[in-house]
Structures are given as C-alpha cells and as structure tokens.
Specification:
By secondary structure, the protein is mainly alpha-helical. It is 80% helix and 0% strand.
Length: 66
C-alpha cells in the first residue's frame, strides 16, 4: 500500500504542476494569447484526464483490496 500512496502523491504533484503551468503561461502552444476562457478549457481538459486516471485507479484498488 505504500507504493499506492507514493503513486498518488506523485500524481497530485504532477496535477498541481501542470495546472500551474497551464494557468500561468502567457501563450498557448500555437502562440496565441491565453485568455480566461482558454485557461478554463485547458484546466477542464486536465481535470477530465486526471479524473479518468483516478477512475482507473479506483477500479484497480477495488480489485486489489479483495
């Protein structure tokens, strides 16, 4: 279970780092300025991605726990 916690801590740090990067960068990958709408959409995509990873982790955890 210690590996599980370490993995989750790494994922939280990765999520926070990516969220800060997406929020603080002045321009996106195409070179256009980041407006508030673009920042919120980018964060929403990041949240959906990490929610999918969390769902997979939850399913694996339920199988391992039994």
């Amino acid at each position: 279970m210690i590996r599980w916690r370490i993995t989750n801590i790494i994922l939280v740090v990765l999520f926070a780092g990516m969220a800060l990067f997406l929020w603080l960068r002045p321009y996106d990958g195409t070179g256009t300025a980041n407006t508030m709408n673009v920042k919120l959409i980018s964060l929403a995509v990041l949240i959906v991605f990490f929610a999918f990873i969390g769902l997979i982790e939850l399913i694996v955890y339920l199988f391992v726990k039994k």
